[in-house]
Structure formats: structure tokens, C-alpha cells
Amino acid sequence: MRRDSIFYKLFQQSPSLLFQLLTNPPENVHEYRFDSVAVKEPTFEIDGVFLPSQSENPGVVYFCEVQFYKDERLYERVFAESYLYFYRNRDRFSNLHIVIIYPSRSLEQSDINPYLSQLNSPQVTCIYLDELGDIRSLPVWVALMVLTILEDEQATEQARYLLSRSQQETSEPENRVIMELLTTIMVYKFEGKSQREIEEMLGITLQQTRVYREIKDEGRAEGRAEGRAEGRAEGRSVEARTLILRLLTRKVGKLPQKVNQHVESLSLEQLENLGEALLNFTSMADLQAWLDAIKLR
């Protein structure tokens, strides 16, 4: 499971997420921006750097490392790269804080004696996701992080709960982002299943997914562009045909020429009906059966 990319997306969408894990977060958490940086000579790749607002000069810089496998030289690397970056940008920052996120304590480096002073310092925080408590009692964004470590059966149940909770607690734009990230997490956890199977597992309808919305937006744009010259009614028809043809291609594959022509010849009302029916299509045979039924009416 590619957790690095998942956590990168989580922090990118919600930079304040890191500070929800800390006991003493800064007061201006919403002014921080998330970045991933490379420190050259020697080259270090830092998972995440949370940079203070440029208006706050100098401010505190936060470093974040997400560690899902045992690395017996982790602290050597994390402290070296963090302090080196801090050294090279000393004029920009007044202080630093290092956060290391583990799924559990079992993956922590065995020999920590050389780093006891740093690990006991208020400037270093180790987070163990399995010790954050009941996933349902956590903020939604933090709960998404915990979702990555749950067993498959439990993950499905909790994912459905988080989807429902997100719809109730967040705005529509934020809910969409959470839904996409949650679906991504589940796709990574269940690598043998397709995204469509994951969406069915979670109870997500096609209309709610990003793919559907992107196609719908494209269809609307093309419909508006092609329909201006022929009036609003024709524009809606072009929009519907464009959308339905794209959706059908996604659902059942490339359409044969005759099938494509048949779909294009449908009335606006028939296209709208097809838009509802295709949600249950799984093959070209389903589409052909629906078109044959139209002929008999």
C-alpha cells in the first residue's frame, strides 16, 4: 500500500491536519503551507515540511516523517536532514519541530539511546496511529489517517461510517475531497478490486465520483460550445449525447459504430432515461438489450 502518496495528499488538502495531532499547536495553524523538499549535498528527501506564513518572519518550521516500515537508521536520517535544512534556512525560522508518524510502536527504531535527548525534547513528537483512540471519536481528517492501518473488514465498515459522517459535518467541496481520498485509500488496501467495486463496497453512486463529475463538466462545456448557434434546446441535447457516450465508453468499452449511431439518434428524453439505466450496465450486452427494448416501444 503506497501510504506515502496518501499522506502527501492528506497533508496537501489539509495542512492543518498535522497540528491536530500535536498537544501544543501554533496559534496560526491555518497560515501554514505544506511542501516536500530536497536537501542537496548530501541529498535528503523530506516527506513533509510545513512552512510558516511569510508574514510571520521568522516562524517555526515543522518537519513530518511518515514511517510504515522498520528502519534502524531512521532517526539518524530524520534528525540529520531536518537540522541540515534548518541550518541552511536559519534566517527564515525561529525554531523547528519534528513529527514522526508510525502505525504502531513496534516499527520504531530499536536503538534509540543516541537520540534520547531529542526524543524527550518538546521539539520532537512521535505519533502512533493505533494509539489515537476509537476512529469514530477522531476528527474526520485524522480518522482518514487511522483508516490506513485497519484490517480489511473493519476498514470497510469504518470507511462507510466516515463517508456518512463527512456528508453531515463538512461542506460539499470538502466532502468531495474526503470522498476521493477515502476511495483512494480503499483502492490501495484492496488492490485486487477495481475502483468500481470499491465504490459499490462503500455505497458510492457513479454520480458522486470524480470521474463522473469530470465527464459531466466536459459534456456541459462541449454542449454549451456546440449548442450556442442552435439554441438552448439543441445545446442540452448535445450535452446529453456527449455525456452519455463518454459514460457508456467508460462502463462497457468502445461502442461499435452502429451502436454509437443508435445512441446519437435518441431523443433528449430517451438519453436521460439511458443515463439512469447505464448505472446498472456491466457489459455491451446490457446496452444492446436496452436499445432493443426501445425499438419495441
What's the helix and strand layout?
Layout: H1 3-13, H2 17-20, E1 33-39, E2 44-51, E3 59-66, H3 74-88, E4 93-102, H4 116-119, E5 124-128, H5 140-147, H6 152-169, H7 172-189, H8 195-202, H9 210-227, H10 232-252, H11 257-264, H12 268-277, H13 284-296
Parallel strand pairs: 3-4, 4-5
Antiparallel strand pairs: 1-2, 2-3
Helix pairs in contact: 1-7, 5-6, 6-7, 7-8, 9-10, 10-12
Question: Which secondary-structure class do the elements indicate?
Answer: alpha/beta
What's the total helix number?
Answer: 13
- Major sheet: size, sense and barrel closure? 5 strands, mixed
Radius of gyration: 25 Å
Distance between the first and last residues' Cα: 50 Å
Residue ranges: pLDDT <50 for 5 or more in a row?
Answer: 211-216
Provide an overview of this structure.
The protein has helices spanning 3-13, 17-20, 74-88, 116-119, 140-147, 152-169, 172-189, 195-202, 210-227, 232-252, 257-264, 268-277, 284-296, and strands spanning 33-39, 44-51, 59-66, 93-102, 124-128. It has three domains: 1-131, Trna Endonuclease, Chain: A, domain 1 (3-Layer(aba) Sandwich), CATH 3.40.1350; 133-204, no CATH class; 210-296, no CATH class. It is built from 13 helices and five strands. Helix 1 packs antiparallel against helix 7 (172-189), helix 6 (152-169) packs antiparallel against helix 7 (172-189) and helix 9 (210-227) packs antiparallel against helix 10 (232-252). Strand 3, helix 3 and strand 4 (93-102) form a beta-alpha-beta unit. With 297 residues, it is of the alpha/beta class. The chain has a five-stranded mixed beta sheet with strand order 1-2-3-4-5, sandwiched between helices.
